[in-house]
Amino acid sequence: MTDKRKLDEGQIWTMVMTVLPVVMLMNAGNELTDDSGIRVLYAGVFGGIGGLIGFTINYLTKDKSRLIKILASLSILIICGLTIYILSSKPTDKEILNQEWETQKIGKIEFDYPTKLKLQSSEIPESVNWFYSELKLYSDGGNDRVASFLKTKILVDTLSIENAYSYQLEGMLKKMQVDIENVELEVFLADEEEISSMFSYDLNGKQVNGYGFMYMYENSLESIWLMPIIQGFSKDFIEEFEAGIISEYE
Question: Which of 60, 88, 116 marks a domain boundary?
């Protein structure tokens, strides 16, 4: 009975020390990418690393006392927890401002941004196909906040840039269930071709900032938006971003 009990206890410690880091670190890849395929790859890599760590610690403590094994298991928890915390920690806007931003151009707008915006959709919903002949959405795929670019061609010639800007901004804010009445707008630029502004609103008890720039030429509307989802953008970030926008005039 004694040998059987010890065998069972040894198996339990082996499971704890190997399975625990595998399960915890398999989720670490979720903090590095939004791509489901890459997440699976990261899950395999980090899970393998977790298994190796757990197996090594289990091997080194297999003949040690129960107290040592408990402390070793706690160490595994702490190591895995710190790894996930470090990977999930987002840089501050102050830190991002000191990084090198990527210069990119979509349509006739050139701009700098920390990450590459990629085409997400080019389909025109039936409800607006009377208005748009082209509707392309680019995005950085952010979860806490998102940068998006709308490249469109319109089928009407009576729309002013002020109304177009307001329609797009209000449409996005309503989808996010933001009370339009409480949105504060600070206009930076407004003429017949371009308009830009910073907007602020309350998000879960905290005031957050977003930004929008729109360029109108011929039958085209191109706009880029910095939209808070959970986290906003600092004023310094917005000012730096706007300073890097260059429109290719007709």
Answer: 88
C-alpha span between 16 and 28 (Å, rounded)? 19
Domain count, the chain: 2
For 27, 31, 48, 114, 179, the CA distances from 77, given in Å and listed in that order, are 14, 18, 16, 33, 43
What strands, in cross-sheet order, belong to the sheet with 220-228? 118-121, 132-139, 145-154, 220-228, 206-217, 194-203, 184-190
pLDDT in tens, 12-35: 777 778 887 787 777 776 666 666
- The CATH code of the domain that includes 192 is 3.40.1000.10
Asked if residue 83 and residue 33 are part of one domain, the reply reads yes
pTM of the shown model? 0.71
Choose among 247, 223, 242, 244: nearest CA to 108: 247
Q: Which of 66, 88, 110 is the last residue of a domain?
A: 88
Q: How many angstroms separate the CA atoms of 40 and 38, rounded?
A: 5
d(CA 57, CA 61): 6
Q: 98's torsion region: left (phi>0), alpha (psi -120 to 50) or beta?
A: alpha
